[in-house]
Design goal:
Blueprint (H helix, E strand, L loop, with lengths): L2 H22 L4 H25 L3 E3 L7 H26 L4 H20 L3 E3 L4 H22 L4 H25 L4 E3 L7 H25 L4 H20 L3 E3 L5 H4 L1 H18 L5
Helix pairs in contact: 1-3, 2-3, 2-5, 2-6, 3-5, 4-5, 6-7, 6-10, 7-10, 8-10
Amino acid sequence: MPNITWYLILTSGSVLLFIFTLWKSFIPRARTLYVFLFTCGLSYIFEFVIKVLFNSYDYYPYIFNNKWYDSIFGAVVSQGIAVPTIAMCIVSFRLNVLWVIGFCLLLMGIEMLFLRLDIYVHHWWKTIYTGTFTFIGFYLARWWDGLMLNRKQWVDWVNIYLILVFISNTIVYLLKTVAKSHLFHIGVFQDPVRDSVFIEALFIFIHSIVVSFMIQRKWGWFWFIGMYLVDGIVVALYEKIGLVQFFGFWNPALFACLPLVVALLVYWVYGQLTNRLTK
């Protein structure tokens, strides 16, 4: 059986659980979606640290020729789909600690199966770490759901920030792998793709801090147009000094549309979900 089949099975199961949870949730659907998006953003930051920085493990779905693009696809299936969906399910149905432990054991079992099938490999990571960190993550999601009811400004800001991190990194990954749009070069890592993933994720983490404030405080169009112009100038400068290389029809002006589109999308999502937190 091709490696990708197992990843598609995991994805399909996660999608079915996502639909069922959203349909039958005991809490408002807006809160359910916020929990999902919160966990996605948190998982991406976690993956950046343990995988991109410290090369903890590799996935082998064999969907892309490049090792890092291929491995990141596996990480997206696991950390961007499966884990957030389970967290959403636990919070939405108010499942007790036995369910939480059961889901952690399930993820550990899937990991051991993937190891046995040689479609996933550890470098320094251990399966017990997966169980430990998912257990902590699931309870973080439950705690966060309670905080959202208080509607504190810092909670809203963190929600916006993590949604930006999740959507921005996902779109950039698709641009690189599907559209073959660009590569950043900074020289931190020998592998050019790992190097590009590192610097661009870091840029997104920093850039999203400012954009989160813009969205939360509902700044007008003038500020978003200004953001586009600044991003375009900065990316053009990066291209000039050799920090980024564009391919095909991609250029700084077009690339600068990415953070603008994501910001406007998150602006809309934030408004829609926030108005429905208690409905």
